[in-house]
Amino acid sequence: MWCHALAATAQTVRAEDAIRYRKAVMVMIKWHYDRLSQAAKGSLPLARDEIERNAAWLDALSKNAAEGFGVGSLEGDTKALAAIWRDEAKFRGLVEKFQADAARLRQFARGGEAAALKAPLDAMTRTCKSCHDDFKKS
Predict the structure, then answer these.
(1) Is the pLDDT of residue 12 over 80?
(2) Is there a contact between 36 and 109 (Cβ–Cβ < 8 Å)?
(3) What is the distance between the alpha carbons of residues 23 and 19, in angstroms, rounded to a whole number?
(4) What average pLDDT does this structure show over 67-90?
(5) At residue 89, does pLDDT exceed 80?
(6) Which domains does the chain have, with CATH numbers?
(7) How confident is the model at residue 9 (pLDDT cuts 50, 70, 90)?
(8) How far apart are CA 94 and CA 83, in angstroms?
């Protein structure tokens, strides 16, 4: 079913629009991740509701992380590697791992304690790094 979503996206969306969309999602993911990371390190004091809200955004955005990677969206202003389409199963697996990491982070965030975010953020960092190492140009 995931493959069909990529193909359907390519049929209805121009490549540059898909690239712009996925970049926007990644910028938002980074924004919320960085805020939670800084809170976990003690360098950004966040209230309980801010911790929960940022984690909720990450969880929601994780579900959109693969949008915009349709067939034909390799060309243009992108750092995506062709490996995404050559090894779609691995890419999909890392996206699913990111989604699971984000859901776990959201569970930890419900307690409102920034220090409790360290372990789930570390797991998310490893997942993101793995995906970037394999599927993103430096």
Answers:
(1) no
(2) yes
(3) 6
(4) 94
(5) yes
(6) 2-135 (1.20.120.10)
(7) very low
(8) 13
